[in-house]
Amino acid sequence: MIDSSQTVAQLVLDHSALAPVFQRHRIDFCCKGEMTLREACEQRGVDEAALRADLERALAERSGAADVDPRTLGTPALAAHIVSKHHAYLRRVLPFARTLAAKVGRVHGEKDPRLQELAGVVAELEDQLVPHLDDEEEVLFPALSSREPDEALIERELSAMREEHESVGKLLERMRELTDSFNSPSWACNSYRTLMSELEQIEGDTLTHVHIENHVLMPRFQGARP
Q1: For residue range 172-186, what is the model confidence (pLDDT) as tens digits?
Q2: Taking a C-beta distance cutoff of 8 angstroms, is the pair 68, 81 a contact?
Q3: Which three-class secondary structure state does DSSP give residue 226?
Q4: Cα–Cα distance, 39 to 7 (Å, whole number)
Q5: Alpha-carbon Rg of the chain, whole angstroms?
Q6: Is the pLDDT score of 225 beyond 70?
Q7: Sequence ranges of the domains in the chain
């Protein structure tokens, strides 16, 4: 059974299958993951009983091999997991999504002007995320895995990472608002529908990525708080 007094972050750490449910309900399990389930429902205006039913259904219906529990990985292995699973995905998909969003905005922007703003948000998301990935791979992760860690450097990099996560979270929220939660209208073409699918997957992967860094990686180091 789902315990409403548990934090949202803890629920996702214990059961990764719950992440898509929180994503659909627009409950932040990354940067605001320290809220309890009850508090998150109150803040978002979500019916707690209905959400708990959705969460319990997701647990009952989960299938296939369980995801890797990031808490079981040492720091070098956790960093490698983040890079191979999440960084590689974003580097592959963001340029495609940016080009597709620009095309859809150009073709259908007269019918729905929000699509032009959406193209700008997707472009900004790539512009923010790619340097963020570079910095993690080139500076932060090596520092965290060092046998003689530079504590000042680590604290500075973790502080920057927290700020960048907040900024990316706002872009994801705006992206969902502009797309009516990634729903395509009846007149949407294949490119439009593909874009909605890609953006929803980008949101889900990025939320999981940030969640792991905020609630598994950062708390391992002095001064780090999700």
Answers
A1: 999 999 999 999 999
A2: yes
A3: coil
A4: 9
A5: 18
A6: no
A7: 8-61, 73-220
